[in-house]
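Tip: read the tokens left to right.
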């Protein structure tokens, strides 16, 4: 794993954190009408799916899925997927966003310096659900906010498996790259129990990682 992956991970996390903290939009639990749009998102047509160009060359992929509400605005889910080990590391969703704002401000902020590319709904769902399933093999659960953002996705069985996504780094072997908000010791203990010594690799970028999860 090269340093570029680490920088992409930090950037994706910081973008999401910044949006949660400083956005003028209210949180899901307080903004009027927003819970209904999230709950009903699967009944809205998909307006598009996006990720950063070259996603397949890196362990982390940021996937955005948007649906068009009856009033023309968009409801969206954003998913940070660690294909090499942890699965769905982070996720958040929003609704009632004007399309111009979504395309001109939101999408560029999510991918940062990377080039944005449109992908099929089938590929978007395979990256997200596949990452969750791969991580579950080693006892890792998706980010708690998936309980909300999953409503933006179709059910797992809705799209055919196209086999376009590889999980794990070396012939399916987990590679854990420690992020700044990971409890690295806990992750390594989990891998030791579930994968077994010698059956996973790791890179500790941070000598003393904080023992807290990323959250609002």
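Filled-in amino acids:
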């Amino acid at each position: 794993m090269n340093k570029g992956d680490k920088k992409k991970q930090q950037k994706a996390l910081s973008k999401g954190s910044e949006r949660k903290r400083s956005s003028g939009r209210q949180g899901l639990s307080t903004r009027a009408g927003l819970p209904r749009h999230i709950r009903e998102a699967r009944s809205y047509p998909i307006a598009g799916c996006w990720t950063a160009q070259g996603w397949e060359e890196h362990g982390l992929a940021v996937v955005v899925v948007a649906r068009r509400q009856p009033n023309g605005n968009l409801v969206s889910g954003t998913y940070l997927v660690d294909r090499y080990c942890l699965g769905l590391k982070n996720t958040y969703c929003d609704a009632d966003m004007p399309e111009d704002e979504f395309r001109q401000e939101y999408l560029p902020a999510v991918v940062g310096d990377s080039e944005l590319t449109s992908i099929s709904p089938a590929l978007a769902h395979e990256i997200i659900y596949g990452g969750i399933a791969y991580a579950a093999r080693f006892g890792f659960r998706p980010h708690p906010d998936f309980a909300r953002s999953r409503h933006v996705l179709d059910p797992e069985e809705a799209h055919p498996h196209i086999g376009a996504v590889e999980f794990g780094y070396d012939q399916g072997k987990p590679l854990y790259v420690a992020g700044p908000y990971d409890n690295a010791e806990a992750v390594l203990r989990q891998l030791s129990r579930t994968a077994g010594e010698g059956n996973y690799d790791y890179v500790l970028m941070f000598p003393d990682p904080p023992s807290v999860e990323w959250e609002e």
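Strands lie at 46-52, 60-68, 74-82, 87-97, 116-119, 175-177, 201-203. The CA atoms of residues 66 and 76 lie 4 Å apart.
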